[in-house]
């Protein structure tokens, strides 16, 4: 049972790591390796898959924590994470995709819609970083609490 509780609390770390890898290692590598349109589409697909999987996990964690408020702390970070994922995946990403789709050969800095795209991309990036930090902080706090509670339980059994 302890392994399962540890697993639940490390899900935030796992997804924070996956987001970091895709956003800050895979994306720049793709943009250096292939043309910008293909790289943008691939990164968009990867982030979309990751966001949808994360949303399912976050909702499951929220459902699990409803009955166990005493065992999980800072659940508001999970709620913030859900709001960020829904906002980025179902509002900002479609807006950015609509802007990009108007330019089949690729959106350039000379395009009239470049400033709108850059603004939405910047907002997405800011929310992306907040999401990573929220997941990381939630996991670390809950793992720390789990470890401290187990130490207290071990002392009680002596």
Describe the overall structure.
Helix content is 84%, strand content 0%. It is mostly helical and 158 residues long. It has one domain. Helix 1 (2-33) packs antiparallel against helix 2 (36-66), helix 1 packs antiparallel against helix 4 and helix 3 (76-101) packs antiparallel against helix 4 (114-157). The radius of gyration is 19 Å and the shape is elongated. The model has no long low-confidence stretch (mean pLDDT 88).
Q: What count of structural domains?
A: 1
Q: What's the count of strands?
A: 0
- Note poorly predicted spans: none
> Whole-number radius of gyration?
19 Å
Determine the structural class based on helices, strands and strand pairing. mainly alpha
Give the helix tally: 4
Percent strand equals under 5%
Basic shape: elongated
Termini Cα gap: 21 Å
Q: What letter string, H or E per element, gives the SSE order?
A: HHHH
Mean pLDDT: 88
Percent of residues in helices: over 70%
The biggest sheet, with number of strands, parallel, antiparallel or mixed sense and barrel status, is: none
């Amino acid at each position: 049972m302890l392994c399962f509780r540890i697993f639940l609390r490390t899900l935030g770390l796992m997804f924070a790591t996956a987001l970091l890898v895709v956003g800050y290692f895979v994306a720049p590598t793709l943009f250096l390796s292939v043309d910008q349109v293909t790289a943008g589409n691939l990164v968009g697909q990867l982030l979309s898959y990751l966001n949808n999987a994360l949303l399912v996990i976050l909702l499951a964690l929220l459902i699990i924590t409803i009955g166990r408020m005493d065992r999980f702390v800072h659940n508001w970070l999970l709620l913030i994470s859900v709001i960020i994922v829904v906002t980025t995946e179902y509002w900002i990403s479609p807006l950015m995709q609509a802007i990009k789709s108007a330019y089949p050969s690729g959106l350039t800095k000379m395009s009239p819609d470049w400033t709108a795209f850059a603004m939405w991309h910047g907002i997405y990036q800011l929310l992306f970083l907040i999401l990573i930090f929220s997941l990381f902080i939630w996991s670390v706090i809950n793992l720390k609490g789990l470890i401290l509670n187990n130490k207290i339980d071990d002392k009680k059994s002596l």
